[in-house]
Amino acid sequence: MLNLNFVPDDYVQSGESRRTNMMCLMLLALVMAALGGSFMTIKVRQRACRARESLINTRMARIQKSIAQFEELQIRRKNMMKTALTTAELIEPVPRSVVLAALTNNLPPGVSLLELNLIQKEPKKAAATAPSSQYKAAQAAPAGETQTGLSREKSLETHIDIGGMAPSDLQVAAYIERLSSSTLLDSVALVESKEYKVEDTTFRQFKLKAMLRNELHLTSDDVDVIRTGAEKSVYRF
Q1: What gap in Å lies between CA 14 and CA 17, rounded to an integer?
Q2: What pLDDT shows up at residue 156?
Q3: 164 Cα distance to chain centroid
Q4: Beta-carbon contacts of residue 72 (< 8 Å; ≥ 6 apart)
Q5: With a threshold of 0.70, does the pTM exceed it?
């Protein structure tokens, strides 16, 4: 039995072409959708990375700022410590405890200290300098050092007033001789020596004046020797 097909061949070919075109369009749409989805995913990830990068940059900027502030504070602290140490060394080159220990070490037997005053003064020549010469000196001073700054502190003189009791003038004279040979003191002189009675015992009440030597710098070993000698001298009285 014969199968007769009354549909024209052109119609059959056009139908197959339409189906093929539809399949291609659908595949194209799927590919475009996949590409669009991939593009959107990449954009979202890029935005997330940029936001995270911005957050990290902000944190890094804050950390760098904190580090810079910390370093600045450390530099200021070092400068302040250096200035404080320099000022302390210039204003009081020798600690008062060391001066007292040196005075105690040189006490002859029977002599005791009753009074000790340390006063810093400007030299008389510096105090009498004319304003014009001070202005010239300020102009000639190095950078960072003014007439009223470190140069003035370096020129300060430390005067010492000493008061005490002694059995006789011989001990007073011996004490003056010992202080004059000391490495700390200079210009030791007797100001007053008068008789003083305690019940039936007669003493000599004396007052001395002296000065610390200029540009005096003691090492830690020198300070230890002076203080050790002062501790030992206490047991002699």
Answers
A1: 5
A2: 72
A3: 41
A4: none
A5: no
